[in-house]
Amino acid sequence: MNDQEYYMSIALQLAREAGADGEAPVGCVVVDSYGAVIGRGRNRREKKHSALAHAELEAIEDACNTLGDWRLSDCSLYVTLEPCPMCTGAVIMSRIDKLFYGARDEVTGSCGSVINLFMEKFGQSTQVVGGILADDCGELLTEFFKKLRNQ
Fold first, then answer.
1. The model scores a pTM over 0.90
2. In what order do the strands lie in the sheet with 27-31?
3. Which has the closest alpha carbon to 124: 60, 56, 75?
4. Active site members
5. Handedness of CA 73, 106, 18, 139 (dihedral sign)
């Protein structure tokens, strides 16, 4: 298992926790330049009754609190599902250097599936790599929504 798969496996565990709690199973971690996980998040939209309770936003906020700074330069974000426009904006605004995601999101994905906001000239350059443990991430989402539809 390489580093990218290792960190994505942590995000996958958070996604499983979200799914077990009745949330869409999306998990996220922020990792500093030394390899320490400094932020963790998972979807909590149903519990918090908030459109803002996405895994990425929770992990970014946790990382900012850990560092005591809103700037997350030299950090990487790992998320099990391609970020939506809101979360992509948060990645850009927090100055995260690298984004790794698992499954593509053909409905709201903003790293190339629907739109690629990282191609716009926001003054921040973020390296994006998709497909990390994509099958595992996608299967988790597929099974969750299949069970939801059957209920």
1. yes
2. 37-42, 27-31, 76-81, 98-103, 127-129
3. 75
4. 56
5. negative
CB 72 within 8 A of CB 48: no
d(CA 135, CA 35): 24
Point out the residues of the chain with pLDDT beneath 50.
none
Q: What share of the chain is helix, strand, coil (3-state, %, to 5)?
A: 40, 20, 40
Is residue 104 within 8 Å of 142, Cβ to Cβ?
Answer: no
Structure tokens that stand for 83 in this block: 């970020």
| C-beta of residue 60 within 8 angstroms of C-beta of residue 91 | yes
Tokens of residue 37, six digits: 């996980």
Identity of the amino acid at 125:
S
Q: For residues 62 and 51, what is the distance between their CA atoms, to the nearest angstrom?
A: 18
Hey, what's the torsion of the CAs at 89, 90, 93, 99, to 10 degrees?
Answer: -90
Task: Tell me if 4 sits within 8 A of 78, measured CB to CB.
Answer: yes
Of 103, 95, 127, nearest in space to 27 by CA = 103
Beta-strand pair 27-31/37-42: antiparallel
pLDDT digits (tens, 9 = 90+) for 20-59: 999 999 999 999 999 999 999 999 999 999 999 999 999 9
Look at residue 42 and give its three-state secondary structure.
strand
